[in-house]
Amino acid sequence: MKIHIIGGGNLGVSVALGIAKFSKNNQVTVTRRNTASILHLENLGITVSSDNTHQIEEADLIILTIKPYQVDTVLGEILPKISNKTIASAVSGLSVEHLQNKIGDSNSAIRIMPNIAAQFGASATCIAFREKDKENAQNVVALFQELGTAPIIDEKLMDAATVLAASGTAFALRYIRASMQAGIEIGFDWQTALAISAQTVKGAAEMLLEEKGHPEQLIDRVTTPQGCTIAGLNEMEMHGFSSSLIRGIKTSLKQIKG
Ligand SMILES: NC(=O)c1ccc[n+]([C@@H]2O[C@H](COP(=O)([O-])OP(=O)(O)OC[C@H]3O[C@@H](n4cnc5c(N)ncnc54)[C@H](OP(=O)(O)O)[C@@H]3O)[C@@H](O)[C@H]2O)c1
């Protein structure tokens, strides 16, 4: 596929890098107004342009990774040049219905919610679309499956997906930071503590994804009766470990919904 990403910022560049590394049969163009900071992408075979309409007629898929207030300007530039295109939008808060109204019936509106781990082939990208666009959405689903996992969800869960998958990256990083800080207190330099904490989280996640079990089943394998792990876990829970995370996620969702 020829993939045209409009908005070469944090997310757009991550997706472009992910495609270049993990979905090599596709050709990528990335656009933004000021291209100086992303010209290095050209070394990886990615086309960089400040013109949103650069060869857009040939694109099989257009991905929007711009801020909500930039959407009308961008669509004003590209719509006169395209028809029968699939437009996948990562723009927070822009519904499929709203996007479809803006792009007209000749194009298909797909809503995606990736995260910046797309760059490492490890994004959790939730995808929503209307039944009429099921066929066109298959390419989008297949692409994001190559960049991690890509569940198709009911669009009414898209705000929740934003919190769990996009904000969730920050939540997971904060867990790793806390674990690393504790690691320093119990004797490691910060680099070693970070390496151990990050790899331990990666290992735990890989076991879960591989075995498709419930976390408690794996926890049970690590917690020896009267051992140090269950003592630490219970102490953390007494200080609100799980409940503070659940409250944080629900607060983020409330904030999104306004
Ligand atoms: N970051 C995440 O983890 C994440 C995850 C899921 C969804 N999202 C959503 O994805 C969107 C982008 O987020 P982000 O964090 O990547 O923001 P960002 O880093 O600010 O990227 C937005 C990019 O759009 C470019 N841009 C602005 N106006 C443009 C125009 N008229 N034509 C072409 N490019 C234009 C900007 O570059 P110039 O100013 O040089 O044009 C900028 O590089 C947002 O709607 C966000 O909610 C982000």
Describe the structure.
The chain is α/β, with parallel strands linked by helices and 258 residues long. Helix 5 runs antiparallel to helix 9. It is elongated. It folds into two domains: 2-153, Rossmann fold (3-Layer(aba) Sandwich); 160-257, ProC C-terminal domain-like (ProC C-terminal domain-like fold). The protein contains nine helices and nine strands. The two termini are 37 Å apart. The protein binds NADP nicotinamide-adenine-dinucleotide phosphate. The site of NADP nicotinamide-adenine-dinucleotide phosphate has 27 residues, from helix 1 and helix 2.
Helix and strand topology:
Blueprint: E1 2-6, H1 10-22, E2 27-31, E3 47-49, E4 61-64, H2 71-78, E5 86-89, H3 96-103, E6 108-113, E7 123-124, E8 126-129, H4 134-146, E9 148-149, H5 158-185, H6 190-211, H7 215-222, H8 228-238, H9 241-257
Parallel strand pairs: 1-2, 1-4, 2-3, 4-5, 5-6, 7-9
Antiparallel strand pairs: 6-8
Helix pairs in contact: 5-6, 5-9
NADP nicotinamide-adenine-dinucleotide phosphate binds next to helix 1 and helix 2.
Family: Belongs to the pyrroline-5-carboxylate reductase family.
EC number: 1.5.1.2
Binding site for NADP(+): 6-11
